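Collaborator request, handled under Task 6.
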Amino acid sequence: MNRFIILIFILPLFVFGQSKDFPTKTDLTQSYTQAISGFIKAVNNKHKTTFDTLFFGKHVYKQSDDFPDIVLPETIENTHIRLITPEAGEKSQKERSSRVYINLVGWVEKEKAEFIFVVFTNGFEHQYNCTINYRYDPKLKAYRQEKVKFEDFRK
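Structure tokens returned to the collaborator:
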């Protein structure tokens, strides 16, 4: 009987491929890296834009959408990735208006994940938002991109 009870509680963890402590720092790092990769590809497909470097605001305001305490790869999709404070992002935009600064907000859950990229350039003007939704695929043991949506704020 004890073996049966153990299987009931442990087996779902192996089936879904996610730990009971989900999301861990590793899970968040993988999810955010995948989302940034998806963003770079989506922008390239929609606008034929490539990036040399993307600056992401590491905002921590003790809210549910704070940037997680993770370390991202230095390069994703041949694009340099830099995490900076929002204040440094604003200063960077004023120094060189062609830089791309992004506030990235994400929610990572066991079955789904959603990321909103709020993109600024041209001296800190809000350009557009890109929302990417993912659904967890237990067969692949990974998130699969479901939907990409752009909302343009340029005049």
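The cover message to the collaborator said: "Residues 1-16 have pLDDT under 50 and may be disordered. The chain has three helices and seven strands. Please let us know whether this matches your experimental observations."
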